[in-house]
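Anyone? Bumping this.
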Amino acid sequence: MRLVEKIKEKEIQIFLAKAFVFLAILVILDFLIGSILEYFYFKQESGLLYRTTYSLDSTHADFLVLGSSTANHHYDSKIFEKRLGMSTYNTGREANTIFYNYSIFQSVLKRYKPKIALLDFNVEEFKVSSDNYDRIASLLPYYKSHPEVHSIIQLKSPYEKYKLLSKIYPFNSLLFTIAIGTTDFNKSREQVNDENGYIPLTHVWQKNISIEANTVDYEVDSNKVNILKSFIEECKNAGIQLYIIISPRFIKYFGNDLSVELVRKIANKSDIPFYDYSKDTLFWKHREYFADKVHLNNTGAIIFSNKVIDTILQSKEYRRIRDENNLSIKIK
Amino acid sequence: MLFNSIIYFLFLGSSLLLYYIIPTKFRNYFLLIISGLFYMYVKVEYIFLILFIISINYLIGIKIEKAHDKKWQIFFLYLSVFVNVGILIFFKYWNFLLKNFFDFLGLIHLNNTDNIPLIAEVVLPIGLSYYIFQTIGYMIDIHRGSIKAEKNFAQFSLFTLFFPKLLVGPIERANHFLPQIKRNIHFDKQNITEGAKRIAWGLFKKLVVADRISIYHSTVIASSESQSGSTLLFASVLYTFQVYADFSGYTDIALGTAKMFGFDLMENFKRPLLAKNVSDFWRRWHISLSSWVNDYIFNPIVLKNRDWGIWGVFYGLIISFVVIGIWHGAAWNYVLFGLLQAFAIMYEFITRKTRKRISKKIHPVIYDQASVLLTFLFVTFSLIIFQSGTLSEAINIIKGIFLNHGDLFYDKPSTLLFMLIGCGIMLIVDIQAEFGRFKFSLFSNKNWIVQQVSYALLLIYILLAGVFDGGQFIYFSF
């Protein structure tokens, strides 16, 4: 009986030893592969991932554009630089929301204070959506180097900090994007402009304008609302003039969108200039300005950028900035 | 609690530790408690329904066995089927049946009311279809005399509640599972390692293949009207891989988990994408459901109608596959999906001699590969109907495949690469298991280090390419 127990005990010891070896192999591989990915991630000099790194670590632009794909494709930084006399960087990134914008803004604030921030806000942006939380993943590579993004990353899931013990996890699904980013492939593509962040769309939308009802009954995500309020507050505290803008769409809505109404109220209450172009009839008449239902192409973006600049130039807030600052163009 | 969530692995790890620490005689009770907690984690109220189903079936099972009169035996069997099917209809099919009944009355001008007595917001308890079918099978087995009714209430409860198979099967058989509960289970390192390997493989299928394809497929289908034929065809082909990876991945995790606790569950998949005909496909796909339908529906129907000859077989096939179809959900597209399978098997039955003649004239390798390809294409086609919310949606996708011109949309190059690599690895592993073509094997290599490094690399690849926010398993909606 004692012999059987001894054999069993030894078997368990061997099993535990083997499990330990397996875990050690796993940890070593994770560390090695994760380190290689990290090295190449931050070595990129062009492309989507590079632009996020540049937004977080390097930009010193006086005028910052923040938002999702609509921000990225609608605001031509060069036009802003030329007409406003301010260096401009477009930090917009596809499918991201206020979570991403706020993180970028926090990192920027650690380094310097831009003079103007433009937040491109989307219809239904405050709607509860798990996808929006999934997209926070785009900030994971910066978890270690940017403590200011921790609070946003924690919103993704309460287990995120444990998952981030893995060195590979922050680069999940990025293997091929990093591989492409380290080559000259991105630079060779005409539309990629890492210099100022703006990415023009070239194709033209072929369909007629959509007529859609606004869904007014959706659940509002209080996290997003609170973050927007903090964003506004921090802009005010830092003396940064914020403009909140809703881009044109090739959709005629009947009814008002809950998020748009809510952001309008918040902006009015905080005395933040707010402009809603989602119902601008100029754009509804020109299909050729659009690449799809919600994105302007380059032609549309040039017209829209000029229109936004006209509005900014006429605003009392801009006149105050102009008078207070001696503006100069600083282009990377 | 999703099988691919961190919380599940915390639950699994702590449960396993306690399971092997406590004395052997208490282990089944412990399993019963954690299975109950597992189900309550999904939704607390569900536990009352499942306890009711367990209690009533426990009592009726004993009654069937003890009834000396055959009439009483049949009465208790029918009572059990009535209760189980009644619960299933109430939660899953009531609204569908009633709506179609009133639509039918409206069609023959007998109904003028818009007030159809639908059940408002009835939520289907997760796993109900699986454990109801399992319980019905148990009752029929007692009635047939192939098993004895379980007298130990705790053991009978564990038969239904055992958490690895509770939510998405396999639909276990009493004669396979109940004897395992009666054993004394001791710690066996083989069970732990085999189970862990199975779980790792399941995670690969789910996170790397199924969830990755799901992102692409859902994007394409959401905008199917504006997608090109090549894109729709590509998405449809990928969907076959997605459903297979999703369901078999989940099953692998279930089987791996059960193995770690010392239990062997039924195999549910046997490389179905390598099936040479539709009959063969259904012997390899969701085996626990297809064999259940075969044993408890098809065979009795054919036996009862043996005087009808071939028509009895066809009749049995149609009924069986309509049940398989409707088991997936209360919608006509599932019925049509089932009927398609039945007609395909009927066609194979009629043409078997002709096909045999043709096969003799063609090189066996070419004939076999062509058969696999044709079966795959048929399955892909029928899954278009399966995945579509309505029949018109399915027709639009099929029309789009043939009529919409344009380039293949594949999102980003990385999306395409991740999907193809995932499907490729899964296929290679299946081909190796089916034919043993490659002499060198990584995962079953005799060298312990090579094997461990292979599994470590598998986990690393899951970390690199897995989708960690992929949402629920497709089969959860059934």
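Late reply, but here is one note on the structure posted above: The longest strand of chain A covers residues 116-121.
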